[in-house]
Automatic annotation (TrEMBL), chain A:
It comes from the Bacteria. Belongs to the CPA3 antiporters (TC 2.A.63) subunit B family. It is found in: Cell membrane. It is a multi-pass membrane protein. The lineage of its organism: Bacteria, Bacillati, Bacillota, Bacilli, Bacillales. Residues 7-131 form the Na+/H+ antiporter MnhB subunit-related protein domain. This is Monovalent cation/H+ antiporter subunit B. It comes from Lederbergia galactosidilytica.
UniProtKB/TrEMBL annotation, chain B:
InterPro entries: CPA3_Na-H_Antiporter_D (IPR050586), NADH_UbQ_OxRdtase (IPR003918), ND/Mrp_TM (IPR001750). It comes from Lederbergia galactosidilytica. Residues 127-416 form the NADH:quinone oxidoreductase/Mrp antiporter transmembrane domain. The lineage of its organism: Bacteria, Bacillati, Bacillota, Bacilli, Bacillales. Keywords: Antiport, Cell membrane, Membrane, Oxidoreductase, Transmembrane, Transmembrane helix, Transport. This is Monovalent cation/H+ antiporter subunit D.
Amino acid sequence: MKTNDLILQTTTKIAVFIILLFSLHIFFAGHYYPGGGFVGGLLTSGALVLLLLAFDIKTVANSLPFNFRIMIAIGLLFAIGTGAGALFFNVPFLTHAFDYFNLPLLGKTSLHTAVLFDIGVYLCVVGATMTIIQTIGGSE
Amino acid sequence: MINLLILPIIIPLLTAAILLFFAKKIAIQRWISTISLMATLVVSLFLIHKIDQNGIQTLDIGSWPAPFGITLVSDMLSALLVTTATLVALGCVLYSFYSIGKGRENYYYYAIVQFLLVGVNGAFTTGDIFNMFVFFEVMLMASYVLLVIGGTKIQLRESIKYILVNVTSSALFVITVGYLYSIVGTLNMAHISERIAEVNQPGILTVIAILFLIVFGLKGAIFPLFFWLPGSYYAPPAPIMALFGALLTKVGVYSILRTYTLFFYHDTGFTHQLLAVLSILTVILGSIAAIAFKDMKKIVIYNIIVAIGVITYGIAMMNADGLSGAVFYVIHDMIIKAVLFLLVGIIIKITGSVDYRKFTGLINHYPLLGWTFFIAVLALAGIPPLSGFVGKLLIARSGFATGDVFGAIVILLSSLLVLYSLMRVFLNGFWGDPSGSSKKPEVAVGKLLVPAIGLTIVAICFGIFSEGVYHYISQATEVLMNPDIYIQAVLGKS
């Protein structure tokens, strides 16, 4: 029996972008408000899981051609690299640095290397969650 | 270079992340992991040298001062163990090239081994009790994967048990750390020690000491918490078994050694007495089981448990001889257990049987294998001048010095049973009628033997040059005997 899930698919197309934006917001708010890499990553993978629910694995894999296992590795490299950067300045591992910059649109913004670490966490979480779900979903 | 002591953790971690990119390119994986393990080994040897010159090395991660941030502390004990662990991992990885098989190599085997080494080296180096938990988990997660990788039936069954036991003990670890934190209000190990010394270890802290003994006893397999070990270690292939047998339980033993010398040394009447009794029971039961089985893998597995008992007995004695004996023995045991598992793996590969009664006269076809096995068994039993001798001598002496004649005699007698348990394999399997040996003497074992012989040579040198090694081990013991040295190195005040 072929079901017609037009309503689900149409709603998903809109909702996915809202969820993705919200996850990015949560991710960048992490330093001053509740949020951060972990929950941001989970929300992003939540959006992707909604896509998987509304469409099938093959369609999602075609529209988002990421290798999620490589994403874990890249996330790890981000996190290790942020820590190991300290080695070049002969300060203890994982010592962070920050400064204020005048960015074109945002004005005076503080940029912190902890964000790079958080990007690592974010990528690892998305990669791990999606690997788990796709592996279980794809196995017969 | 102030970050020297973190390099044995970071190099394997970085390697593991890089190896994830080359999942299907086995040749590249092999080269990268060998090179990185050699680099780690060189770095950790350099670290030993630096500690020898300048005393305990500490590193406040993220530049946060000592009790507030995570501090990594590398004293001689942890540097020696890190070096040994890396050496064993190198041996096992080289052995894996020719034995583990493509199926496993394709599924992130080398990356997981690196993660395991991250966990082990981290647990040896950390100076923060919760960070130690995290490194335990890194190590355990990697060991879950190594246990189940390949997906044979026995591996699946045993990994369920293993994961169940370890999840339980990890939960207990968190609860115990929670109790400890609610009483002393800090997680930095030096700071905990200082605060416990201020209140002079009231009853509740002795309760926590026992809880830690249960947690680390489950990880390190002391009586009566070793029930999970024989089955779990039986399941995986030889190089993984060697990694487990050499590294995992020793991390539990190291943690007992660290907490019982750094935290709970005020009221030793109860805790250390209990540890001594449990150690003796561990030794007795391990020895009985080791001579009960005809299965080579089981024999070596129960020898792990005997060794754990011997080491914890040395810790329980809490005198200079006992502690240096324990340190000596733990290093010796890490190397020799890896050797034995690798050799047993080769024998099983040749004969296709785990039962030593099924083959005889192997030495006619494989003399080098036979004599390496012979030397390894002698070293395990502690025949002078091989590596097991000095450690056991010191431990037995410390037992006699504290008046525990029974315990010391049990330790000495256990050597006989250990020797008997594996010499049977040699006498039955290697000697005897050469026509009863394997039907396929054409199995080439040359490359497999290289790492095993290399580690055996290290073990022999460790025994012969024990005078020189003792110089380092006495430094390790000095810190264990005087927690103030550790506290002062971390907190920087007296």
